[in-house]
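Two proteins follow. First one:
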Amino acid sequence: MNKIVSKLLLLIFLGCGVNITAQEEAPSLIRVGIYHNPPKVFINEQGKADGIFIDILDCILKDENLQVKYVPGRWEELTEMLSRGKIDVLPDVAFSKERDSLFTFNSLPVLNSWLEAYTRKDNRIYTLAGLENKKIGVLNGSVQEDFFRGYIKENLDLKYEIKAYPGYPQSVRALKSGEIEVLIASRFFYFSKFSEKMISPTGIIFRPSELYFAFPKQVDPVLTEIFDRKLAQLKNDPHSEYYGILHSWFDPVLRTGIPPYVLWLLVTIIILLLIIIAFTLLLRYQVKLKTRALWQKNRQLTLAKEKAEENERLKTIFLQNMSHEIRTPMNGIIGFLNLLKEPDLDSDSRQKYIDIVNKSGKRLLATINNIIEISKIDSRQIAVHYSEVDIFEVTDFYFHFFHQQAEEKKLQLKLSVNLGEEDSPVITDKFILDNILTNLLNNAIKFTTKGFIEFGVYREEEMLVFYVKDTGVGIPEERQEAIFERFVQANLNITRPHEGSGLGLAIVKAYVEVLKGKLWLESHPGKGTTFFFSIPFIPAKKEDFPIDSDKEMPEVSGEKIKMLIAEDDNISYLFIQQLLNKPEITLLRAKDGKQVIDLAKENPDLSLILMDIKMPVLNGIDATKKIREFNPLVPIIAQSAYSSPGDQEKAFEAGCNDYITKPISKKRLLSLIHKFSGSFI
C-alpha cells in the first residue's frame, strides 16, 4: 500500500514539474509597430511585415523565447501608441532630444541616414542655392518637414514653398507631374521601388542621423539588453547576417534571384551532359578535366566576389569612422567659433571656447595625419632612413613632453632606462621610433584615469626592448588581437568615453614591422596594460656619422631682426605675421620662389628666411639651392604641411638649416628664431 501511495505522489510531483516548466517556457509576446517607409519598414504585397529593420529584428530575436505581433499603422498613430505602452517596439526611429524624453532607445545605432534632395533628370539642381523659389515636397509629419519648416527657414536665407504628402507614392506623382520641383527624402528612398529612372539624386544632403529601435519609457530592461547584445554581436562580425541583409537590400541583383530561364538552361545543360557521358565513355577523362577546370574557375569567381564584398565593408567602415572623426571636431570648431562672435561674451567663456576650438583642431589634425600615414603604409611608401639616435635623449624628451599631459589627469609619469652608456647611441629611423612612442604614450594617457604611466627601454641580447605600462582599463583577452586592426578599439560600446579613429595601433604595428621588430602586449581588465616592442640593436660608431665641424652658423644681432617669409597662401602669411607682430621684427614677403631669390639678393642683411616648400613658379627646395649659390650663411628654415623624413632630408640637402611643419607652433617658431638669431622674442 505504501509503495502505491509513493508512486502516486511521485507522479503528481512530476506532473506539477512538467506544468511549471511549460509555464516557464511559454514564449512572451512583443508588439512591433509597422508603418510604410520602404525599404526600411513596410507591408509587402503579401500583406506581411518587410524591410531592412524587419530582417534585422528577426536576426536579433532568433533563438530568443519571444513571439512577435506586428501592429500596422501610420507614423503618428504608432508613436502615440509607443508613448502609452500600447506597442513594445517601433523600428526605424531617428534619435532626437525630444524623442529621447518620450522613448527609450537601444544603445547601438542600427543604420546611419541623412536627408537628400531628389529632382527629375530634366530639372537638375546642383547646389543649395538651387532650392531658391522652388516647390519642395516632404512627407507629412516627418523629420524632413520639421527640418525644412524650422531649421532651414531660421538659419538659411532661402525662399521656398513646402508641400506635405501622406506617403512616397503621392509625393513621387507630384514630382513627375511638376506639382513640386524637389522631393526631400531619406537616403534609403534611392533603394525603394519608388525611385524611378526619371528621378535622380542631387548630392545635396542634410541632417545626418542615426536610426534606432525605440521602446516605451517604462520598457523592461531585459528586452533592451537583448537588442543591444545581439546587435553588437551582429555588427562586429563581418560575416554575420547583418551585413548579408544590407547587401541583399542595397544590391538589386541579390534580391531578384536567379531568373527561371537560367534554371531551365542549367537543367538542359545537365541533361545534355548526362547523354554525352552515357554515349561517349571514351571521353570521360576529358570531361573530368573540363569539369575540374570549370570548378576552379567558379572558385576563383567566388573568392573574387568575397574579396569585393570585404572591400566594400572596409570602405563603409572607413567612411563611417572618418566621417565621425572629421565631423566631430569640425562641429566643435565651427560651433564655438560662432559662439565667439557673441558681443556680450565674458572673458572666461571666450577663453574656454578658444581652448575647445584649439583641442578640436588638434584632434582633427591627428586624424588627418593618421589617414596620411596609413595611406603610406598601404601604398608601401614607407622607407627606412637610418641615422644615429641617442636613446637617452629620445626617452628624456618624451618624459618631459608628456609630463604636463599626465599631470593634468593627476597621473604619475615614470621613466626607466636600463642601458649602459655604450648602448645608448644606436642606428635606427628616428622618425618612425618617435611615431611609435608617441602613439603608445598617447594611448596610455587616454585610457588611464588614475595611477601611473611607466615607459622605458632595456637591452635583450641583440634587440632593444621598449615598453609602455599603464594602470588603465585594460583589454579583454578576446580583444587583444583585434585592437591592432584598423578602426578598432577594445571597447565596442557606442557610449565609450574615448574618441579616436582606431588607426594608432595599426600604424604602430606597421612601423615596428618595417623596423624588423616585434610588437606584443600583456593586459588584465581593470588592472592595466603593458605594450612591448623590440627593434634590432645596431650600435652607432662615431666614424659612421662624421660631423662637419668647419661649418659655422652666423651670429646675428639680437636687437633688430629682418625676416623674409616665403608663403603664397594669404591666410598662412597673416597667421605668421600675427605671431611675429613686434617692433623689433621687420617682415618681407615673397609669394613665389622667384620673388624669394630676388628679395634675398636685394637684402643681404637678412637675419632669417622662412621658406615654404610648396610654392608657384619655383618650389622652396630649388629656391634654397639658388640662394645658397650667393648667400651660404643666411639661416633658412623650411616650412611645409608634409612631415615625412624624406621631405626633411631633401630640405637639408638643399641647404636648409632646420625644418618646421604646419600648423606652425608659436613656441617652436620663436625657439628657432632664437636659435639662429640669438634674439629672444
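Second one, unrelated to the first:
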Amino acid sequence: MLKKMGRINQAVLIILYVLITVKAFEMEIIPASKIVVQIGEMLVLTCNTTGCASPSFSWRTQMDHPLGGTVNNYRTYSTLTMNPVSIENYNDYLCTAFCNEKGKKEKSIKVELYSFPSDPVIEISTSLVAGEPATVICKIPDVFPSDRLEVLLMKEGHTLHAKDFSEDDSRNKETKTVTYSFNPTTEDIGKEITCVAKLPIANMDFEPKERVTSLKLNANFGPQNTIITVSPSNFTVEGNPLKLTCVTESNPPAQVVWSKHLADGNIEHFIENNVLSIPHARFTDSGLYICEVINLVTNKTEKATVDIFIQAPPKNTTLSIFPSSVVKQGESVTISCTSADVPAVQITLRKKIGDVITTLETEDGKYTIDKAQLKDAGIYECISINKLGKQSQHIVLDVKVPPQNITVLVYPSENVKEGENVTITCSTYSNPPSQMVLKKVHQEREIILPSVNGTFTLYNVTKNDTGKYLLDVFNEVGNNIKVIEIAVIGKLEKRHQMMPLIIAFSCTTAIAIPVVAILIYVSRKAKINGSYSLVKALRLKV
C-alpha cells in the first residue's frame, strides 16, 4: 500500500514538473488593443509570442487594405512599422502567429488616427485701417477628422464668431479656415484677437484637444486731430528761442513736413521733423507756418497752421517826400511816414521849427500840402514807437519862393540937389536869397551898376545922374523889377553948405518865417549885403 502511494506521488511530481517547465504558446500585440496616433508620426506595432521557439508571423488588415507599413520578423516577435502614419493606416490590424504543432494564435488591434499638429494661424486680409472693412482669417492646419473641429474667434474674451465643421465629410487631413469681417477702430489698437480651435473626439486619448493663438491688433489710422503747439507763445520777442511742435494721432507715425508762407506768396519748406526750433527768433520769422502730416500706409494727409508774430522794436522807419524835398511855391507835396514790417507800432509825424513842435494829422501815414508856401518849409520828423522801443527819421522840406513884397526906400529923396549923396534901401522875401542888379536907362546905351555886397552909392551927384534906374531882384524861381526915378536939380551956392547926395542902395533879402528854425536854415541863403559905387559903375557900358 505504501509502495502504491509512493508511485502515485512520484507521477504527480513528474506531471507538475512538466507543467512547470513547459510554457503554453501565447501571443500579444504591443501596445494595447487600441491605439490613438497622430497622422505624420511613427507607429510600431509589435506582435510578441511566448511558448514557441520558432514562430512564424503574418500581418493583415481586417478589410484586406494595404498595410501601409514595413514588416520585420525576429525570433519570437514581429513588428509592423508605419513611418509616417498616413490616413490609410486608419484600420484594424490582425497579427497571426504560427507555432508548428502548437497551432496558431491571432490578435487584432485598432489604430485610430487624428491630426491636430499645430496652433491656429491668424492672418489679416489687409493692413488694418481704422474705419475701413477688414477680414480676420484663422487657419487650422492639417486637421483630421475635420467634422469634429470647432473654432471660436474672440476679442478680449468676447466671442466674435463661432463655427463647427460637423457637416464636413472629408476623409483626409485638411487645413480649415474661418473668416470674420469687421471695421476696426482706434480703440482696437493693442487688443488681442484670439482663435480657439478644438478637436473634442470622445474616447480618444490624446493631447492637446484645444489649441489657441492670439494676435494683437494694430489698426492703422490717421493722421487726425493735428495741432501745432508753440512754446513759449506765438507772440514772442525778437531774440528769444521759439519751438513749434506738430502733434498728431497716427499709426504708424506720420511723416511731418514744415512750410511757411512768404510775403511774396511762395512757400518755404523746412526739415521733416515734428519739432521746428528757432534758437533766436528774428522779426522775419513772423508768418503763417504749416505742418503737413502724411501717413504713408493709409495714404492720408492732414494740415495744421499757426500764425507766428515776432515782436520787435520799430525798424525800417521811412520818411519820404514826393515829388522832392525841394519844391516851388504853390506845388503839391506829400510827406509819407511808415515803419515797415513791425506790428503794433504807433507812427507820428511832426514838424519842428526850433523848439516849436507841431504834431500833424496824417492819413495812413501820409500828410499832403496842396500848395506849398514858405511857412511849410522846415524839419519834418517821423517817429515810430511801440512798447519795445522807438525809431525816428527826419527830413528837411525846402520851399523855393521868388522875390516878393519888395520895398524900395530912397534917402533923402528921389529929388536931390547937386553935390548930395543918395541912399536907396530895398527889402524883399525870397528863397533862395535873391540877387540884385541896378541899371540906369540911357538913350544910347544901358549902364549896369554892379553891386558890392548889395549896396549902391552915388556920391556928389550931378545933373548927369538924373534919370530912370531899374532894380532887378531875382533868384532861380523868378524875378521882380522896380523902377526908380532920380532927379538932380540946382547947384549949391556954397561948397561947404552943399549936402552930399548919397544914393545908398541896400537890398537885404530874407525869408520871412515866423519861427527861428527856418530862419537859421535859410537866413544865410536869403541875406545878401553888398556895396555898389554908382560913380564908378557909370563908366561901365553894356
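SUMMARY FIELD: Residues 2-21 form the longest helix (20 residues). Confidence is low (pLDDT under 50) at residues 11-21, 494-542.
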